[in-house]
Design goal:
Elements (H helix, E strand, L loop, with lengths): L47 E3 L2 E5 L2 E11 L4 E10 L4 E11 L4 E12 L2 E13 L4 E10 L4 E9 L8 E11 L4 E11 L2 E11 L7 E2 L3 E7 L4 E15 L2 E10 L3 E12 L2 E10 L9 E11 L4 E10 L4 H6 L7 E12 L4 E12 L9 E13 L4 E13 L9 E12 L1 E2 L3 E16 L4 E15 L1 E7 L2 E16 L19 H6 L12 E14 L5 E16 L2 E3 L2 E9 L2 E10 L4 E14 L2 E9 L4 E10 L4 E10 L4 E12 L3 E13 L2 E12 L7 H10 L9
Antiparallel strand pairs: 1-3, 2-3, 3-4, 4-5, 5-6, 6-7, 7-8, 8-9, 9-10, 10-11, 11-12, 13-15, 14-15, 14-42, 15-16, 16-17, 17-18, 18-19, 19-20, 20-21, 21-22, 22-23, 23-24, 24-25, 25-27, 26-27, 27-28, 28-30, 29-30, 30-31, 31-32, 32-33, 32-34, 34-35, 35-36, 36-37, 37-38, 38-39, 39-40, 40-41, ...
Length: 716
């Protein structure tokens, strides 16, 4: 949850706000303290006293001119201090400076009295500063009676000392650490001297979360489906129900559709957690329909070996995310599932029961098979000298929304895999033998089966030498790799295809000997794969400067009229702030590159970088430009564009600008994404953050980090 706004943030007087570490930090040049920090005395029995002049009358001491009292508990300096030894009281006047373990103050007068183990204080016309908490302000009077602190006519801020871009003011504020309670009266939040929020009475917890308003968000959008433009205002309120549960209530006003109510309940259980989120719009202004969304999650540990996970997601219609929430517009399906899993590490035994269902919410996307249910059992037997046997059986009932045109039924697959790892400093060998049986019990009463085996061996040689790269001492590793994989041919045309897809020709996939994912298609293999890997590693830091890979498979039995696979190669180079990544697939018959992906980046910090990408998957060509640049010390711009070169369409475009100071920040971002054919979701979001009182909008920051890699989206 985001930190609460306004009144609930008064707890910062007794709690520290930990900001996320950032690579790029706004420079705050204001002086950090009210006065130079003093070293408290180490003498536990006596006070250290100094002054230009002193008078002693009985047990009373009158100190004048640069008067100072220093103890293990506090430091007090003033123009004049009257020390009453019997009463253990010090009364100070003029240019007061007071310092204890957690606070520093300056003011006109002070009374410090020790009663037992407690220190009672009274200060008037005070400026105060909590260095560790980065809180500073002023008050007409501060009284600490040992149990609670009372601030009269108080104002404070988390801006640096001397900066009051925003302040919070209250006629009276009381903090009671023992009761863990704070109370404030007549509270006003001011920005640049202008009141923006008022609350007559507020109570909160000094430690832990408190109820209160969170940062409102404002957005404008273009509804391409009906040609209308509008705006969206979301006002959230956070309820801290108990230490183990909370609730977030949000009013979502969409100008073209109406008012939606959103709620999110979270609770920690003794052995898990539960989360329920619901959105509801009673009547859409345009469609006249009820619009809603439900998302619930349950994570439960039944014991140290068994876990239960339940996810349920449903939405009223496909257009909800685009028209009402203006979030998650890239969703294509909502998956609901139940997963009961057992894992016994001591016995190397695991099992699970899984079921799922899907609701399609994307445009022009076909339904896919769902598993309802799937039962899985796995047992691993470990032998001597790296020998290992894995037994598994999985039975899955596949369902499909368009049952009439898609086969449905139950697939049961049993498999045994025998492996052995042989490894020395000079080489490694991994032989593998696999045998499996697959049975299909189809809903149309037909039964089908397949029995198949495969074996292979993967080997590596390890070489290394010391050399130099770009003037730096490095260790170069060289790893030749050779693998053989064999799987006999099986006619599988009569078998259904529930979950198999063709694998891409990556470096590791070539060595696996497999061509398909899933269990329905197991391709013939009689291949020898050659590969070579080389890394250049900095001898001092261990950082890899350059990594190279190349591999090709030789088909002993021709595949599609070819004796060899495409050549797969990759190169990753890092030179200081520059990185270059390139992966390609080269067709030796066509003598051309058929697939590739390249990325070139310069990253100075998370607010100053640029990345260029270019990709071709054989069907679509695309390019991307992502970056951020600090225009001034406090203003930075950011952008991310992904463009389809094949269709000459911008798939995604994100641009914006942000102002960030030590006190507050504001950001404007335009988010444009293609949703279907030539239709776009176009939203402009505004974000305003008072440092320490509220944090960045979580949905916006997640979207920016997704659309602009390397960008640090939090403004806290």
């Amino acid at each position: 949850m985001r930190k609460q706004l306004a009144l609930s943030a008064i707890i910062l007087l007794s709690g520290i706000v930990n900001a996320q570490e950032q690579d790029y930090v706004v420079s705050c040049s204001s002086k950090p303290l009210l006065f130079p920090k003093q070293t408290l005395s180490k003498d536990t029995k006596n006070l250290d006293i100094s002054a230009d002049h002193s008078e002693v009358t009985g047990d009373n001491y009158l100190l004048t001119g640069n008067a100072v009292i220093n103890s293990v508990e506090y430091y007090l300096a003033a123009d004049k201090i009257n020390l009453q030894k019997v009463a253990k009281t010090s009364k100070a006047h003029g240019n007061i400076k007071f310092q204890s373990a957690d606070i520093m103050l300056t003011g006109d007068s002070a009374v410090v009295k020790k009663q037992g183990k407690e220190i009672h204080t009274t200060f008037e016309q005070v400026k105060f500063h909590y260095p560790e908490r980065k809180i500073n302000g002023q008050a007409q009077k501060i009284v600490n009676d040992g149990k609670e602190q009372t601030f009269n006519s108080v104002s404070y801020t988390l801006c640096p000392v001397g900066n009051t871009d925003w302040v919070m003011k209250a006629s009276k504020m009381t903090l009671n650490p023992e009761a863990n309670k704070g109370v404030a009266e007549n509270v006003t939040v001011e920005l640049m001297g202008v009141p923006i929020f008022y609350y007559p009475h507020y109570e909160w917890k000094l430690k832990g979360r408190s109820s209160g308003f969170l940062t409102p968000t404002l957005a404008t959008f273009d509804d391409s489906d009906n040609g209308k433009s509008g705006y969206q205002v979301r006002i959230p309120y956070y309820f801290n129900i108990a230490p183990d549960r909370d609730f977030l209530l949000t009013l979502n006003h969409v100008s073209t559709r109406g008012e939606a109510v959103e709620g999110k309940y979270r609770q920690l259980l003794d052995n898990g957690r539960i989360e329920i989120e619901g959105h509801y719009l009673n009547k859409d202004k345009i469609s006249k329909q009820k619009r809603w969304y439900v998302d619930s999650k349950l994570d439960l540990s039944l014991n140290d070996k068994t876990a239960l996970n339940i996810i349920s997601k449903r939405v009223s219609d496909k257009q909800y995310f685009k028209e009402i929430s203006h979030d998650n517009t890239g969703e294509t399906s909502l998956i609901s599932s139940v997963d009961l899993a057992y894992k016994n590490k001591e016995n190397n035994l695991s099992a699970s029961i899984f079921a799922e269902s899907a609701q399609l919410v994307g445009h022009n996307n076909d339904a896919e098979y769902t598993r309802a249910p799937e039962v899985f059992i796995h047992k691993k037997v470990v032998g001597l000298n790296g020998r290992e046997v894995n037994f598994s059986i999985v039975s899955t009932q596949f369902k499909h929304k368009t049952k009439g045109t898609n086969e449905t039924g139950t697939r049961t697959h049993a498999q045994a895999t025998f492996t052995r790892d042989i490894k020395t400093s000079a080489y490694s060998l991994q032989p593998k033998f696999e045998i499996s049986k697959t049975k299909y019990a189809m809903d149309d009463k037909t039964k089908k089966d397949r029995s198949i085996y495969s074996f292979g061996i993967d080997s590596k040689l390890f070489f290394e030498r010391d050399t130099r790269l770009f003037g730096t001492g490095v260790t170069q590793t060289l790893t030749p790799r050779l693998a053989y994989n064999y799987t006999p041919y099986k006619n599988q045309n009569a078998l259904p295809d529930f979950d198999s897809e063709k694998m891409s020709n990556t470096y590791e996939n070539l060595f696996s000997g497999k061509k398909y994912t899933g269990l329905d298609k197991i391709s013939k293999a009689n291949d020898i794969t050659f590969g070579l890997e080389s890394d250049f590693i900095d001898q001092k830091t261990g950082e890899t400067y350059l990594a190279l890979k190349i591999a090709q498979a030789h088909y002993l039995d021709k595949k599609a009229g070819k004796n060899y696979s495409n050549i797969v190669a990759g190169a990753d180079l890092t030179m200081g702030k520059f990185t270059f990544n390139n992966a390609l697939e080269y067709d030796t018959q066509l003598s051309e590159v058929v697939k590739r992906h390249s990325a070139l980046s310069y990253v100075s910090n998370a607010r100053k970088f640029i990345t260029l990408t270019q990709g071709d998957d054989g069907e679509q060509r695309s390019a991307g430009l992502y970056g951020a640049y600090p225009i001034t010390q406090k203003v930075h711009a950011f952008a991310g564009i992904n463009r389809s070169l094949s269709d000459s369409i911008n798939n995604k475009k994100t641009i914006g600008v942000a102002y960030e100071s030590c006190c507050w920040a504001i950001r404007v971002a335009q988010l444009k994404e293609i949703t279907s054919n030539s239709k776009f979701d176009n939203v402009v979001k505004f974000e305003f953050v008072l440092k320490g009182l509220a944090s960045s909008n979580s949905s916006l920051t997640a979207r920016l980090e997704e659309d602009i890699p390397n960008y640090l989206s939090y403004l806290e």
